[in-house]
Amino acid sequence: MALNALPDGPGAEVVVDAAGLGARLLAGDGSLSPVRGQVVYVDQVGLDQWWLDESGPTYVVPRSSDIVVGGSADEGEWDRTRDPDLDRQILARAAELVPELRHARVRGHKVGLRPTRPSVRLELEQRRKTRVVHCYGHGGAGVTLSWGCADEVAGLVDG
Ligand SMILES: Cc1cc2nc3c(=O)[nH]c(=O)nc-3n(C[C@H](O)[C@H](O)[C@H](O)COP(=O)(O)OP(=O)(O)OC[C@H]3O[C@@H](n4cnc5c(N)ncnc54)[C@H](O)[C@@H]3O)c2cc1C
């Protein structure tokens, strides 16, 4: 359910706050801000290598049945409306890098907001009888960092 505050009181002895950008409200953390990113999904055209060019950024991520082509990074932008011009730019940049993409069929699009903060917040906060373990603010690296952060969170939860 959508919470308007972190749970506390009876039944909420331990709460893990992994709300991403939602921690702006739940933890009252104004240092969190979005970095908008747009990607295009195209058919798999036989690629088995990743490509990343920091400018843009431009990246090509082959998966079993499709390829994720990115991207963009707009700091402070909350708007999740898709920008078709940006799709075209992304595909053109990617095709410069990987010419096989030139005629790949577009399957879909996605826009997301990276939950960015000067540094990840991973710490324990005692709020009366509730132990809150905060874990948010991973920006554009939350998937990469998830295993290590989950280990640390579990350690804090176990005391
Ligand atoms: C275009 C793009 C490309 C990316 N590429 C990479 C990449 O290549 N490698 C990488 O490591 N990372 C990448 N990331 C970043 C990664 O997706 C994020 O860092 C990661 O998803 C953050 O995970 P999270 O669980 O902290 O937050 P989220 O995934 O945002 O999850 C937060 C959850 O909390 C819930 N929530 C928030 N507020 C409330 C509330 N008030 N009540 C109840 N529930 C609430 C939300 O509904 C959501 O389910 C990319 C992101 C984007 C947008």
Structural class of the helices, strands and pairings? alpha+beta
Low-confidence stretches are: none
Radius of gyration: 19 Å
Order of helices and strands: EHEEEEEHEEH
Mean pLDDT: 96
Q: Determine the fraction of residues in helical runs and give it as a percent range.
A: 10-25%
Summarize the biggest pleated sheet. 8 strands, mixed
User: Which range does the strand content fall in?
Assistant: 35-45%
Bound molecules: flavin-adenine dinucleotide
How far apart are the first and last residues' alpha carbons, in Å?
A: 27 Å
Global outline: elongated
| Tally of alpha and pi helices | 3
How many individual β-strands? 8
Give your account of this protein's structure.
With 159 residues, the chain is α+β, with helices and mostly antiparallel strands. It is built from three helices and eight strands, in the order βαβββββαββα. Strands 1, 2, 3, 4, 5, 6, 7 and 8 form an eight-stranded mixed sheet that branches. Strand 7 and strand 8 form a beta hairpin. 18% of the residues are buried. The model has no long low-confidence stretch (mean pLDDT 96). The chain binds flavin-adenine dinucleotide. Flavin-adenine dinucleotide (FAD) is lined by residues 2-3, 18-22, 25-26, 37, 39, 70-71, 112-115, 136, 138-144.
Q: Outline of this structure?
A:
By secondary structure, the chain is an alpha+beta fold. It has helices spanning 23-26, 84-97, 142-158, and strands at 14-17, 33-43, 51-53, 58-62, 66-70, 74-75, 106-127, 130-138. The longest helix is centred in the last third of the chain and has 17 residues, at 142-158.
